[in-house]
Write a structure and sequence with these properties.
By secondary structure, the chain is an alpha+beta fold. Helices cover 32% and strands 33% of the residues. It is built from 13 helices and 35 strands. The protein is elongated and about 110 Å long.
């Protein structure tokens, strides 16, 4: 029934409040959840907005490039701004606990929504990311393999089980700690950029594959594409990609991505020509458990390496401050020696005083100026820096390296299971290299501890002697006589440690007798062989260099998995969309699987405007059904003609509410003169009559040019017409039954409950 509504309701506590709202014509309409549209302030030019699949949270990007998250009640949850490049894509994780953002420079940033902090940031592409999809593979868990024992034998700071008797605080976020649980779902983050590169990241972080789609014309010329939409089968066996040519010629290979060629036999390749490409990714289905186990370990190993870098940075900053103050005082002593025309340097002057027991006039002037308080302050600064270094090395760096080595040992054991793990590129030889570098880093930490403790002890004795000297000069009392053992100990410290920054030498500075090179590069095995041939020892390399070598070894160990998986992804079928999609019409892509998982279907829907602008638009549908077991592919099409309610409108946005239901947003002018209007509607696809197009297949490729699209009426249509608004964007959450439309001038959002009609609301209101 068609009626007009002039009111809506909302419950505040137990009191029912009625509020006047603009006139809305309803046709089995949806319940408007708020009396007033929610203001957004501003929004980015990409109009990125998405609902959380498991919680009533909505995220959007404002024009200041910040990601804003609101609750359904419109209370602001957080504002994520830990990025510099323009946000170009946005999506939630399947469990709703993490949010992924793609950026113009190809970077992907993962946010923990519960903690409102950044989990990871990594370069996934070299070009602008324009599409993100995060999916979960049902039935793939780490518990299906050998259980991970590292969490039971290591300290909590390294991801192990926290001992109730200790209060050691874990440095890992809640999202990272989930990787240590006995059971972890296999999730894959897919990202596509404007150069046709598609990357797959298990658990959102670990890259397991990268392919690049290129279109090859009849003249063998190759053209780049932009990835518009992506969808994945539930078992990851098939990936569907909607792409269009971008007008750029491909002349060279881009990065390590495996190139997949889409042949275009129709002659010249025009810019904007669309394709639906189905990729065969059986390797992900067959090896999902192995990839999940390796990926979870790789993520944690990478977090350990990052933790070591942070510890190194903290140690270097702490020690630099202490050494700068000590160096300044030694420089002041050198200046006093020059002012008194002394030919001695700082080291010889101090050694002479220690042995003879009598200070020169220059040293006396320096000590009188420094005083006892200055000596104590300097000793406290140096001692604090030494304590910080030892705490960082003992409490963080050593346990992290031990945990890393334990995990690498676990992976080495799995790599020997050739039948299951070598086919995904896990090699024992590469892991042995990673184990060696971990051992070298652990030895370097031990060396750092030894040198720091020696310096701390020696400087303590030296400072006490210097303090007694200053006290005697000021007060003319006290003894500065040293025993034979003290004389030898302090003299050795002054000669070997006081003016030689050995701690920095172990941390990051390379001895000039070894080599000078850019800090960002690491020394490879060839250079080390040359060092050994020249009589140098590799132990002279600093901890910073060993850490860079450790990072490179980790990337190499897991890089073979990426190349192995990438080489096994292939093109399964291609559909040319020249007659399917029209110009800048809206596109929506979804996937579904049968209950037994034997068949996967990908559905693509495109809006099509009629030649008569006053006529209602239509919707073209395409369905590809794949049976991996029999390697058969079927193609079917349909065309749905919208009702007269949509006359004089155009489809502004189109999204799948569920595999069998579509949510549509249309905008336009009413039949009578008046303001613009928006129509929010859903329509069912269960009763669609499909027309088989299997005759179009030519070597797994089909062209819809000239193929008829028989029109049929829509079924299960539910719509709500809202007058006086100019809606431009639609965001839906089928699992939570929520849809929202984005309105402009000013930017605001209207939210609807798609599972509750306003007619039902009115009946409840009358009962109340």
């Amino acid at each position: 029934r068609l009626v007009k509504r002039y009111r809506c309701k909302r419950n505040v506590g137990r009191k029912l409040i009625r509020i006047k709202v603009p006139s809305c014509t309803t046709m089995a309409s949806f319940h408007r959840m708020h009396a007033e549209d929610k203001p957004l302030g501003s929004i980015s030019s990409e109009k990125l907005i998405t609902w959380c699949p498991t919680m009533d949270l909505v995220a959007y990007v404002n024009n200041e490039n910040n990601i804003v998250i609101h609750r359904l009640s419109w209370s602001k949850l957080t504002n994520l701004s830990d990025h510099s490049e323009r946000v170009s894509a946005l999506c939630w994780s399947p469990d709703g606990k993490m949010l992924a953002s793609g950026h113009a420079d190809g970077t992907v940033v993962l946010y923990d929504v519960e903690l409102c902090e950044t989990v990871a940031s990594f370069p996934a592409h070299s070009r602008r990311i324009i599409s993100l999809t995060w999916t979960v593979c049902k039935g793939k868990k780490t518990s299906s393999l050998v259980p991970d024992r590292t969490t039971r034998f290591l300290p909590a700071v390294c991801g192990g089980i926290e001992d109730n008797k200790t209060s050691s605080k874990s440095t890992m976020s809640s999202s990272e700690s989930q990787l240590d649980q006995k059971s972890c779902d296999m999730t894959v983050l897919l990202s596509g950029d404007d150069s046709g590169v598609l990357s797959l990241h298990v658990l959102g972080k670990f890259c397991i594959g990268s392919v690049r789609l290129v279109v090859q014309g009849q003249d063998k010329s190759r053209h780049g594409v932009e990835i518009k939409r992506m969808s994945v089968a539930d078992d990851l066996s098939r990936i569907s990609v909607v792409c269009s040519t971008n007008g750029n010629d491909v002349t060279e290979k881009l990065g390590d991505a495996n190139e997949l060629v889409v042949d275009e036999h129709g002659g010249n390749v025009e810019e904007g020509r669309g394709f639906l490409v189905v990729l065969n990714s059986d390797v992900l289905q067959l090896n999902g458990s192995q990839l999940l186990q390796v990926s979870s370990q790789a993520w944690i190993i990478e977090s350990f390496v990052s933790s070591l870098h942070q510890s190194l940075t903290s140690i270097c900053e702490s020690w630099k401050q202490a050494w700068d103050q000590l160096s300044k005082k030694l420089l002041d002593l050198s200046t006093c020696l020059q002012q008194h025309d002394s030919s001695s340097n700082v080291e010889s002057e101090l050694l002479t005083t220690i042995v003879c027991g009598t200070a020169s006039p220059a040293l006396q002037a320096f000590l009188v100026q420094l005083k006892e308080q200055g000596v104590r302050r300097l000793e406290k600064v140096v001692d604090t820096a030494c304590v910080n270094i030892q705490q960082e090395a003992v409490q963080k760096m050593t346990p992290v390296l031990e945990s890393l080595m334990f995990r690498v040992g676990e992976l080495m054991g799995l790599a020997r299971w050739e039948e299951r793990f070598q086919q995904i590129g896990l090699r024992e030889q590469a892991l042995e290299c990673l184990m060696r570098e971990s051992t070298q880093c652990l030895h370097k930490v031990s060396e750092l501890l030894t040198i720091t403790r020696r310096f701390q002890k020696g400087y303590g004795q030296f400072s006490q002697w210097l303090e007694r000297m200053a006290f005697r000069l000021v007060n003319q009392t006290g003894s500065t006589t040293l025993s034979g053992e003290e004389t030898v100990s302090i003299s050795r410290f002054v000669e070997h440690h006081l003016t030689h920054n050995q701690i920095s030498g172990v941390l990051q500075d390379i001895s000039t007798s070894v080599m000078s090179f850019d800090d960002k590069r690491c020394v490879n095995d060839h250079v080390l062989s040359a060092f050994k041939a020249a009589g140098h020892s590799s132990t002279r390399l600093t901890f910073k260099v060993h850490l860079e070598r450790l990072k490179d070894a980790a990337e190499f160990s897991f890089g073979e998995t990426q190349m192995c998986i990438s080489s096994k992804i292939s093109v399964d079928s291609i559909v040319r969309l020249s007659a399917f999609a029209q110009g800048k019409g809206c596109l929506a892509l979804s996937s579904s699987s049968s209950s037994e998982g034997e068949q996967h279907a990908f559905q693509l829907m495109a809006s099509r405007q009629q030649e008569d602008a006053a006529a209602a638009p239509s919707l073209n549908l395409l369905r590809i059904a794949c049976k991996p077991s029999s390697k058969s592919v079927s193609l079917a099409v349909a065309c749905l003609q919208l009702t007269d309610l949509f006359c004089s409108t155009s489809v502004s946005d189109l999204q799948f509410y569920s595999p069998d239901k579509v949510c549509l947003l249309a905008v336009g002018k009413p039949k009578e003169e008046g303001d613009s209007r928006a129509i929010l509607s859903t329509l069912e696809l269960e009763e669609v009559i499909w027309t088989s197009a299997d005759a179009l297949w030519r070597s797994r490729a089909a062209d819809l040019e000239g193929f008829p699209f028989p029109e049929q009426a829509v079924s299960g249509l539910k719509a709500r017409e809202v007058e006086g608004v100019s809606a431009v964007k639609l965001a839906v959450n089928g699992k939570r039954g929520i849809a929202s439309i984005l309105e402009e001038d000013p930017w605001r959002m209207a939210i609807f409950d798609m599972e509750e009609d306003e007619d039902e609301d009115e009946d409840e209101d009358e009962d109340e």
